């Protein structure tokens, strides 16, 4: 994870000695300084440390990555952050669901028409019945 | 004058003086009452957001005096203590202050509400937070897209079968080809020919798919391009795939419930 002498990105940013038991070291490599800088700007190092201590060790990498994602989203969009993406996705879900409901209604209509008489003209061509 | 008359006039004079003094006292009391009322009006007009005695939720939490110019007061009312508690726990009061100071005043309410939502999601799911919700929504969106594609393919198949039935034979004549084109144009023009869905009724689709290849491509383009039109798709894709295995855990959190507070439309202008 870390070269023997190279401090992690967090300790470099905080200008402190990177100990062997540094909680940030496995997740903030020195070649990704922006990752910690963003997370520190939005959440703060102490809050991140608390969150990491609350989760199990095998979950910490995912936790750090999701925090980094949220921090980057908040820096790009200071008003809505990643909540903006959630809003967009929800609206698209609603739109697609409506479209699917309409298509299913058409399918039911066609299937009943075919069930009653397979050789009938489509109802919008001729009104035979 | 007689003594009795003098005494009588003295008594009357005393009564008159007492009456005047009483009147003066009443006037003084009225004045003091007016002054007190005026003072109260000045204090309430100076602090329109906070009631005269109730600190905002932030100052209550931080155990400090809520000043009239408190930056948190408009957004953290005292009847919602949990909102500030969550935000403080995840982001910290100083970070929230810096964030709010970087924004225009009319944007701050939305910013606070989105921070409160993120904080709540992070507390519910300390590992993934809002990213879990995004991942879940993307999965649902992909599922819906597939379902819609299959439904439209099926619908197109029904339409083709009914049209073929009206011609009386399986092969398409030139006149019936024109009729098919007209028929599809009067219907929903985004109908998909299900030539690729399965191998059934292949001889129908073999003739039909060559008439509507552009429509089919348009559908696919809409599915792929619709998601990220207003958002950075690279940002959405970042690290989301790692969380795909955690859907079972995340599905306990309702996406609708998380977005309920923030259903205001996102203005991406």
From TrEMBL, chain A:
Protein name: LOB domain-containing protein 25 isoform X2
Record family assignment: Belongs to the LOB domain-containing protein family.
Originating organism: Cicer arietinum
Domain LOB: 6-107
Transmembrane segments: none
UniProt cross-references to InterPro entries, sorted A to Z: LOB
One Pfam family linked to the record: LOB
UniProtKB/TrEMBL annotation, chain B:
All copies of domain LOB, residue ranges: 54-155
Ranges of Basic and acidic residues composition bias in the record: 15-25
Location of the region described as Disordered in the Swiss-Prot/TrEMBL record: 1-53
Annotated GO CC locations: nucleus
Biased composition (Polar residues): 42-53
The entry's keywords: Developmental protein, Nucleus
Compartments where found: Nucleus
TM stretches of this protein: none
Biased composition (Basic residues): 26-37
Pfam entry (one): LOB
PROSITE patterns reported for this sequence: LOB
Primary location class: nucleus
Signal peptide: none
Family per record: Belongs to the LOB domain-containing protein family.
Protein name, per record: Protein ASYMMETRIC LEAVES 2
Gene name of this polypeptide: LOC101510654
């Amino acid at each position: 994870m870390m070269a023997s002498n190279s401090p992690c990105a967090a300790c470099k940013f905080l200008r402190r000695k990177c100990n062997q038991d540094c909680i940030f070291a496995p997740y903030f490599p020195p070649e990704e300084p922006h990752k910690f800088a963003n997370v520190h700007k939005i959440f703060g190092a102490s809050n991140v440390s608390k969150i990491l201590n609350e989760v199990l060790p095998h979950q910490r990498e995912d936790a750090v990555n999701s925090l980094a994602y949220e921090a980057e989203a908040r820096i790009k969009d200071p008003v809505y952050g990643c909540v903006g993406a959630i809003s967009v996705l929800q609206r698209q879900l609603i739109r697609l669901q409506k479209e699917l409901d309409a298509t299913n209604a058409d399918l039911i209509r066609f299937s009943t028409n075919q069930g009653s008489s397979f050789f009938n003209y489509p109802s919008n061509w001729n009104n035979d019945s | 004058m007689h003594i009795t008359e003098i005494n009588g006039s003295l008594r009357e004079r005393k009564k008159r003086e007492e009456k005047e003094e009483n009147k003066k006292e009443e006037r003084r009391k009225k004045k003091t009452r007016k002054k007190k009322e005026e003072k109260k009006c000045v204090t309430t007009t100076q602090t329109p957001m906070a009631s005269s005695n109730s600190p905002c939720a932030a100052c209550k939490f931080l155990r400090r005096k809520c000043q009239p110019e408190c930056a948190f007061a408009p957004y953290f009312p005292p009847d919602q203590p949990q909102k500030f508690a969550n935000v403080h726990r995840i982001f910290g009061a100083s970070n929230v202050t810096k964030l709010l100071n970087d924004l225009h005043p009319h944007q701050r309410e939305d910013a606070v509400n989105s921070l409160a939502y993120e904080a709540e999601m992070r507390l519910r799911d300390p590992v993934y937070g809002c990213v879990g919700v995004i991942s879940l929504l993307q999965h649902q969106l992909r599922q819906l897209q597939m379902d819609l594609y299959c439904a439209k393919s099926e619908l197109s198949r029904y339409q083709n079968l009914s049209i073929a039935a009206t011609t009386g034979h399986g092969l398409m004549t030139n006149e019936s080809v024109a009729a098919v084109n007209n028929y599809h144009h009067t219907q929903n023009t985004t109908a998909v020919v299900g030539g690729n869905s399965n191998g059934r009724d292949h001889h129908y689709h073999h003739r039909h798919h060559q008439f509507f290849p552009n429509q089919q491509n348009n559908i696919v383009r809409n599915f792929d391009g619709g998601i990220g039109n207003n958002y950075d798709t690279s940002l959405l894709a970042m690290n989301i795939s790692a969380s795909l295995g955690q859907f079972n855990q995340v599905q306990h959190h309702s996406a609708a419930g998380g977005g309920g507070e923030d259903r205001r439309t996102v203005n991406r202008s």
